[in-house]
Amino acid sequence: MKLLINGIQSNLRFSSAHVIPGHESCGFIHGHSYFVDVEIEGERAGEFDFVVDFKDVKKYTKAICDELDHRLLIPVYNKLIDFKDFDKKSDSIFDLKKEGSVHFKIDGKGYSIPAEDCIFLPLPYSSAEELSKFFAETLARKLSETYDNLEYVSVCVNEGIGQGAMYRKDL
Ligand SMILES: [Zn+2]
Fold first, then answer.
1. What is the CATH number assigned to the segment(s) 2-170?
2. In the chain, what are the domain boundaries?
3. What are 54-96's pLDDT values in tens digits?
4. CB within 10 Å: which end of the chain, N or C, has fewer?
């Protein structure tokens, strides 16, 4: 059986700034009011014959939304983002969080931003495509700690109404 959670109606939303390095129009810092739809398929099981408890799905998804909300999303492994004092190959992303400010260049354009204003993602892009994969994998990992009856977790990250990317993580 399949469960659906509507992000707008269930308040699974976040508003963030991002940039797609090298893109003609999205290469400038801009923002979106995102919302996140979730679809989960699995066998009904347990005391209540649920596929999964809606409350758990909403709690875990909301926790990811809250991490990203009101931050600049930085895809640390983007090829065009050149960090000062940070080596993508050897340094940990956790080190970036500890900095007072982060300094980087994109195509020669320099940025200096307080680290607390940013969320550093282990991704090549902060596109809807990469964010949906990030959400689906994180949510699937979290649900797998307590559920063993799920077939897949699919997440659609919408960049406002009318356009979104969906990623399915099979379990
Ligand atoms: Zn955008």
1. 3.30.479.10
2. 2-170
3. 999 999 999 999 999 999 999 999 999 999 988 888 888 888 8
4. N
